[in-house]
Amino acid sequence: HGLAAECLAVDDKLRVVFAGTAQSADDCIVRDVAYLLEENPSLSVSVVTSDSGLIARCRKAARARGRNGRLDICGSVRFAETVLDEALGADAVDHVSANEDHVAVAKALQVSTERASLKRVRNKRLTKKRRKGTTNDVTASLASLNGLNDKPIKTPDAALEELVSNGATLPQLEAAIRQAGGGLRGREKTWERCVRAAYLHKCLRGKTAAPHKVLDGLAVYVNKLMTSRALAREAVLKTAKRPPRLKVKKRLEPLKQLKQIESVSSKTWPGGWPVDVSVIETPRGAFLPDLVNCSVALVSDTHGFRIDDLPMKGDVLIHAGDFWLDTQNRNRNAKAFEDFDAWLYRQDFTHKIVLRGNHDPVRCEFKASNATYIAAKRQTIDINGLKVYCVPHGSAVSLTKDFKALKELRDADILLTHAPPRGTLDTTYEGNNAGSKALRDAYYNACDDEAPTLWVCGHIHESAGAARVGATTIINAGMANAGRAKRLDRGFVAVGADLAEAPRAPPSPPPVEEVEEELTMVGPALPRLLAVDLGEKTVGVALYDEQGALLDFAAATDEEDGARAVVAAAERCLGGRQATVVVCEGTGRLLADEAFDALSQSGLVACEAPHVINPDEWRAAVLAPRERVNAKKAKHAARLVARQLAGGLEHWREDLTTDAAEA
């Protein structure tokens, strides 16, 4: 310790190094061990300590200089028992009276050392429990010292040095320590050692000794460090433990949505078309101009349904995924796949590429058509210089970290993925964006000046169409209906076909001026309300009179055509009657309109449009708040209420499904 960092002589072969107040004694020990081993290769150094942390630091400093065999560690207890007990005698201090000035300095020194220990505790890497316990001990010690230093001393070390210089003896200072409460608390008694260091510093100051090569070199080194703070800091940093190096990862730039060019809306293709691309829409498909110097036909999301043969021939036929029927019946799945393979065989195209979607199997063989099936790994297909980069379902997660793959993506002419990028042609019928973030970020980070000309995707049926992002035209070629696939609503997309030979749609009729007519009631004289609950698998309907009384209910199911199931259930429920009001709930506005169109064509309703509501509206009016905490409880409560209502019917049926109960 000591007030200043200094190396002083005890005798001809003994020197004492004082650490000073700027750094700890352990730092000085490690620093001097490193210096001695480096400057004197033949020297053996012994360190007397029982501190495991200090031992580890000294051994590390010795290994760094290749002198590990020249370092010896001696335990403090063993050293004291063998050396110190013989050389030192006990000082009798009981008869010495303490001076009040000495006591004040001792109290101030005690408080300052406790505060320093609190600072060290806060800087240590301890567990929360150990840190809390250690901090509580130190703060309790400081609280007990409150009021001891009535005369605050800003620099207790300097005050102690001044007392020693003015002639205060070691027994007097130790008596002052005892009167200030020292000598009992603390294992190391750091502030008591400060007193002993100050007294020793005074005794050794100005003492001369015979020259010694190694010890004088150490003295010059320590005294030089004392005069230069930069050298002292550098010496400590050299021996301090270095933090581990962290691997720098490439950080992607933040991106919310790709910048799209304005598009023109279309009724058949909800995604619309870019304003700078001339498109011809026909009942069988859409025809776009040449983008990649060849004729390409695009289909996607056929889901095992029958596809009409394409009225064109060309270079490349691309299917962007979801060709599998995906039902519980394996025979139906196999038969649908054979029909799809036969359809591919009949199409007059030189190259045929099929990408795996989220409904498709990993292993699949196209024996009839010999089409190229991309199932698991990303790869580039070269077709006479036309590069098609394929990203099957599930392989886009690590795309942003694969720099080789990003280069292939940038150099490709056509990018083929199953899912669209997030924020582009990915809006579901519920209004959510269900595209891939990984594909969006990969495109943004890979494509600056160079980018694919054409991006083919699918997956989101209700966003089929095209959009422009920079120099890339993104086409969602989904052919199935919105939501769960039950039929094909759209045709193919042809890029680069001969537009002169493309079948054109008949010209639209001239607009007819609307004439306001008086509305007349059609159907029965008494109003009847038909409630329709559209579920994923079954459909439930219920019929009410003008007073709100339940007349009848029915349920039906049809996996292939939901509209047909609605008509079948309504016919059973109406029994030759007509409904004047139709209320639909479930799976969005689009399917509600389809169900109403089917009912109108069958002559079962006498109104112009349905009322579409959400589940929360009728649950708030029918169920108690505790019954509609979640969907599961609401369905259970709806079944109980429906049984009570249906109990009064003359013809009770036991086919009360959940959808019929909610209706």
Name some characteristics of this structure:
663 residues; alpha/beta; seven-stranded mixed β-sheet; six-stranded mixed β-sheet; 18 helices; 24 strands
Structure description:
The chain is α/β, with parallel strands linked by helices and 663 residues long. It has 18 helices and 24 strands. A seven-stranded mixed sheet has the order 7-8-19-9-10-11-12, with no helix packed on it. A six-stranded mixed sheet has the order 13-14-15-16-18-17, covered by helices on one side. The protein starts with 5 loop residues before the first strand and ends with a helix. About 8% of the residues have low confidence.
Q: How large is the share of residues in beta strands?
A: 15-25%
Report Rg.
Answer: 44 Å
Kindly, what is the distance between the CA atoms of the first and last residues, rounded to a whole number of angstroms? Answer: 87 Å
Largest sheet: 7 strands, mixed
Gross morphology: elongated
Q: Which structural class do the helices and strands define?
A: alpha/beta
Strand order of the largest sheet: 7-8-19-9-10-11-12
pLDDT below 50 for ≥5 consecutive residues: which ranges? 89-93, 144-150, 184-188, 241-254, 500-509, 514-524
Mean of residue pLDDT values: 78
Tally of contiguous helical segments: 18
User: How many runs of DSSP E, i.e. beta strands?
Assistant: 24
Helix content: 25-40%
